């Protein structure tokens, strides 16, 4: 299924790769990624990922072109469950194209801290790389 994700209201200026495993590819977004992010696009069962590590200025999500669909289907060994395409800015250079194919996409709003916090409120989490002091 070609997908143009519907993002919740918010300022999704900065984006980066939060996690990348064979089971889950996660993009985090917010207006500033220094201390936290407030939106995650979680691609379950990623089959094809062409995506910069970080990108800026509100990426433009769009429908994948027939040529992109063919490329991803060939590389992934068949049609993916979802295919997301977007244009984004990387380091002020010409736009880059992102293509991510996966079994399914989950759009998850919620505050994810990028530093250690002792107490979290309901719905808050720590980024996967955050460890307690001294660990």
Short description, anyone?
The chain has about 140 residues and is mainly β.
What would you note in describing this structure?
There is one protein chain. By secondary structure, the chain is mostly beta strands. The protein has one domain. Helix content is 8%, strand content 50%. Strands 2-3-4-7-6-5 form a 6-stranded antiparallel beta barrel. It is globular, with a radius of gyration of 15 Å. The mean pLDDT is 91.
Radius of gyration, CA atoms, in whole angstroms: 15 Å
The residue fraction in helices comes out at: under 10%
How many extended strands? 8
Which secondary-structure class do the elements indicate? Answer: mainly beta
Distance linking N and C termini: 43 Å
Strand order of the largest sheet: 2-3-4-7-6-5
Averaged pLDDT, please? 91
Beta fraction of the residues?
over 45%
- State the low-pLDDT regions, or none: none
- Strand count, sense and closure of the main sheet? 6 strands, antiparallel, barrel
Alpha plus pi helix count: 1
Order of helical and strand elements: EEEEEHEEE
Q: Key features?
A:
single chain, 135 residues, 1 helix, 50% strand, globular
Layout: helices, strands, pairs:
Blueprint: E1 2-3, E2 14-20, E3 24-30, E4 36-50, E5 54-62, H1 66-76, E6 82-89, E7 96-113, E8 125-126
Parallel strand pairs: 1-6, 7-8
Antiparallel strand pairs: 2-3, 2-5, 3-4, 4-7, 5-6, 6-7
């Amino acid at each position: 299924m070609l997908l143009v994700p519907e993002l919740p209201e918010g300022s999704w200026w900065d984006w980066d790769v939060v996690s990348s495993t064979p089971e889950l590819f996660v993009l985090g977004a917010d207006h500033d990624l220094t201390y936290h992010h407030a939106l995650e696009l979680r691609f379950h069962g990623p089959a094809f990922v062409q995506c910069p590590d970080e990108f800026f200025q509100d990426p433009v999500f769009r429908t994948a072109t027939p040529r992109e669909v063919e490329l991803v289907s060939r590389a992934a060994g068949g049609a993916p469950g979802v295919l997301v395409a977007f244009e984004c800015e990387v380091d002020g250079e010409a736009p880059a194209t992102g293509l991510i194919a996966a079994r399914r996409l989950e759009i998850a709003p919620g505050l994810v801290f990028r530093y250690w916090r002792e107490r979290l409120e309901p719905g808050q989490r720590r980024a996967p790389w955050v460890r307690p002091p001294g660990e």
